[in-house]
Design brief:
The complex is a heterodimer of chains A (487) and B (95). Chain A is built from 15 helices and 17 strands. Chain A has 487 residues and is an alpha+beta fold. In chain A, strands 1, 2, 7, 8, 11, 12, 13, 14 and 15 form a 9-stranded mixed beta sheet that branches. A 3-stranded antiparallel beta sheet of chain A has the order 6-5-16, with no helix packed on it. In chain A, β12 and β13 form a beta hairpin. Classes of the chains: A alpha+beta (487), B mainly alpha (95).
Chain lengths: 487, 95
């Protein structure tokens, strides 16, 4: 289990980091988990709140069937057990943005049980990470602490929105694995359409459990880092927290189990003292809600509608298109990229298309900071460009310039080639004429070449290519040049 | 079951009820009495009996995913002692 390269070196030896992640994923739905108020992000404060969400006396929760369906769909996507009977409990704690004084959650009988996520690590290594459970629960409201010097402002719009809490086994061993886990989970959720995975808007949030131990020792005491809101911060928080724990242990101290907060500006984790006494949640079954009993036929129906998921798509890209495992991983990782790729690849050379998408297209998109769905070059437009390479209208080298122009102007490839006169020269006469001219100008080099200096071929190719404005067909140019130089 | 003053103070803190030190002992005695009375239920042998979650033999009622509620911030804030700019306000809670 312990992989050498994941170990951290301390003063007293090598340490292993043990990580478990709890992800809160906001369910994509129109209405909230137990009320008919909207879940839409960004509305004016308290405009999307029902009397249930504000916990007015006597209001009763009624569960949203679609939220249940989304949780089941996610469970099936994680290859997990679906519990046909699950129970809602009250998790009691006191906080300003929790008007009922309890959160409706699931404790001992969650809707989804054990599952697995497969991580594709560097070097083709696959890591199977266990999912302990997935349960449904309500989100709390939002507190704003920076609006007033002495008051906190409370907006209950988020109160009651459905969350899936997805808990991993303590199977992760490095910050890289934690990042890979989050990316893979996000990709699966997006494929399933059950959560948009947007960490900036808070629709996916992460708590990290960190402990360290000497290799072979029993598990150490863990600390929980709450609410880390980007994958990069998760990695940084883990690195800092592991170092902190190792230092304490190597000084002969012990780790106190506690909740900590990661401060990205200072690059450190610190104790959340307010949470110390709060871990007494006094769970009990919510008397307002009967157990949730699912019809196995309904679960089967949901299963039948599951889309092809990233792992299956990756395997298919390898077998159907002959892609490398790496390329298949890159092109199947996000649903939109996979769709784009398959649209271009249809009826074209799949490996050539893979290269164009993963190098040229991604390169340009990264440069301008755009996501594939906002690409100025559509899948059909890129296909048009690749067709021009395939039928020898332009060379692969010129195609890169054409692509850059397409990206900038949004014009189709054909139009750019015509307007700029980039059509490849395949006329032997024209190429011969250019070769003759260059050879006449460089008689000394011709003599050297003929005297055995083969390396000069590259010089001649370059010169002739330049003379034709890069438009000469490279294969034809090579062939004619060699023949003429041979004399 | 017997509750001591320390446990009562803890329960009171969790419920955010202020209990003067002097009243803790009396409360502990009262709560212990209630607990002991409830504990009579332990005399019933429930081996193999599923916990009863309700008296009605029916499934959890479910709702369609439709927006049918909300849009009345004035009503929501009606009882708020110190609303401002559409928000509830509370004394500052800082982490």
């Amino acid at each position: 289990m312990s992989d050498e390269k994941n170990l951290i070196e301390g003063r007293t030896g090598m340490w292993e980091v043990i990580l478990g992640l709890e992800v809160h994923a906001q369910v994509i739905s129109e209405a909230k988990l137990f009320s008919g108020a909207s879940t839409k992000f960004g509305a004016d404060p308290n405009t999307q709140v029902s009397l249930v969400d504000a916990a007015f006396p006597g209001m009763l929760p009624v569960i949203n069937k679609y939220c249940v369906e989304q949780a089941v769909r996610t469970g099936l996507g994680l290859k997990a057990e679906i519990n046909l009977k699950s129970v809602f409990d009250r998790k009691n704690y006191f906080y300003a943005d929790l008007p009922a004084g309890y959160q409706i959650s699931q404790y001992s009988q969650p809707i989804v049980g054990k599952g697995t996520i497969v991580l594709d690590m560097a070097g083709g290594v696959k890591r199977h990470i266990g999912i302990t459970r997935l349960h449904l629960e309500q989100d709390a409201g939002k507190s704003l602490h920076d609006q007033h010097p002495t008051k906190s402002y409370i907006d209950l719009n988020r109160s009651g929105v459905a969350l899936m809490e997805i808990v991993s086994e303590p199977d992760l061993r490095s910050s890289e694995e934690a990042a890979a886990y989050l990316k893979k989970l996000r990709s699966i959720l997006r494929y399933l359409g059950t959560c948009d995975g947007n960490m900036e808007e808070g629709s996916m949030r992460c708590d990290v459990n960190v402990s360290v131990r000497k290799v072979g020792d029993p598990l150490g005491t863990r600390c929980e880092i709450k609410n880390v809101n980007s994958i990069r911060y998760v990695q940084q928080a883990i690195e800092h927290e592991a170092r902190r724990q190792i230092e304490i242990l190597e000084e002969g101290g012990s780790i106190r189990q506690e909740t900590r907060l990661y401060d990205p500006s200072k690059g450190e984790t610190r104790s959340m003292r307010s949470k110390e006494q709060a871990h007494d949640y006094r769970y009990f079954p919510d008397p307002d809600l009967l157990p949730l009993v699912l019809d196995p036929n309904w679960v089967s129906e949901i299963k039948a509608t599951l889309p092809e998921l990233p792992d299956e798509k990756r395997a298919r890209f390898i077998s159907q298109y002959g892609l490398s495992d790496y390329d298949a991983g890159v092109l199947s990782g996000e649903k939109e990229i996979a769709e784009y790729y398959e649209t271009v690849a249809k009826g074209r050379d799949p490996k050539l298309v893979a290269n164009w998408v993963s190098s040229e297209l991604f390169g340009q998109l990264n440069k301008v900071g755009k996501w594939i769905t906002d690409s100025p070059v559509s899948a059909d437009a890129l296909g048009g460009l690749i067709d021009l390479i395939a039928d020898n209208t332009i060379s692969g080298r010129i195609a890169k310039d054409v692509f850059a122009a397409m990206f900038e102007t949004g014009k189709p490839a054909k139009q750019i080639v015509e307007e700029k006169g980039l059509r490849q020269v395949t006329d032997t006469g024209a190429i011969d004429a250019a070769i003759d001219e260059i050879m006449a100008k460089n008689a000394d080099k011709v003599a050297e070449y003929r005297g055995g200096k083969d390396k000069l071929l590259g010089f001649f190719v370059g010169q002739v290519m330049k003379a034709t404005g890069g438009k000469a067909n490279p294969a034809l140019l090579n062939e004619r040049l060699k023949a003429k130089l041979a004399g | 079951m017997s509750l001591d003053s320390k446990t009562v103070a803890h329960i009171a803190m969790l419920a955010r009820i202020k209990v003067p030190e002097a009243e803790l002992a009396a409360l502990a005695k009262e709560l212990s009495g209630i607990m002991t009375w409830i504990e009579q239920l332990n005399e019933v042998d429930t081996t193999g009996v599923e916990p009863m979650t309700g008296v009605l033999h029916r499934n959890l009622p479910q709702r369609e995913d439709k927006i049918t509620d909300g849009g009345y911030p004035d009503k929501i804030l009606m009882n708020a002692p110190d609303a401002a700019h559409g928000f509830f306000t509370v004394p500052k809670v800082v982490e």
